[in-house]
Amino acid sequence: MTDTLARLEQTIAARRGADPASSYVAKLHAKGVGKIAQKVGEEATETVIAALSGDREELVGEAADLLFHLLVLLGAREVPLAEVLAELDRREGLSGIAEKAARKPD
Ligand SMILES: N=c1c2ncn([C@@H]3O[C@H](COP(=O)(O)OP(=O)(O)OP(=O)(O)O)[C@@H](O)[C@H]3O)c2ncn1[C@@H]1O[C@H](COP(=O)(O)O)[C@@H](O)[C@H]1O
């Protein structure tokens, strides 16, 4: 699974500088990070709607759109997927209570 996302991250990075007329990734970048963030919000909402509708196929499609646009957003902000995965790995090592404390130190 992470192989797929890592490959997609590389494809997105390679397409950033392409012609916006022939590349959706390049078209999004040309519109700026605000537009990319907006797309993530839209795809998240569509994912929620699909989950609530009970249409499994629709949910799979919307979740794929969401993950793709999230990778585009991370790339635009120069946050490598590996950094996000490392954060998830870190949390995996924490219990529920310890995780709460680690995330919200008082
Ligand atoms: N995984 C995807 C992927 N998922 C969704 N989409 C595109 O995301 C868009 C979402 O559709 P919308 O109707 O919401 O958006 P839109 O109407 O095109 O745009 P707006 O009007 O919202 O600005 C569609 O154009 C889809 O084609 C994707 N476009 C590209 N990829 C991957 O990115 C790679 C590079 O793509 P290019 O940059 O196009 O070469 C591809 O090989 C794929 O692996």
Automatic annotation (TrEMBL):
PANTHER family: HISTIDINE BIOSYNTHESIS BIFUNCTIONAL PROTEIN, HISTIDINE BIOSYNTHESIS BIFUNCTIONAL PROTEIN HISIE. This is Phosphoribosyl-ATP pyrophosphatase. One of its GO terms (cellular component) is cytoplasm. GO terms for biological process: L-histidine biosynthetic process. It comes from Novosphingobium aerophilum. Its EC number is 3.6.1.31. It is an enzyme of class 3 (hydrolase). It catalyses: 1-(5-phospho-beta-D-ribosyl)-ATP + H2O = 1-(5-phospho-beta-D-ribosyl)-5'-AMP + diphosphate + H(+). GO terms for molecular function: ATP binding; phosphoribosyl-ATP diphosphatase activity. Pathway: Amino-acid biosynthesis; L-histidine biosynthesis; L-histidine from 5-phospho-alpha-D-ribose 1-diphosphate: step 2/9. The keyword Iron does not apply. Keywords: Amino-acid biosynthesis, ATP-binding, Cytoplasm, Histidine biosynthesis, Hydrolase, Nucleotide-binding. Its main location: cytoplasm.
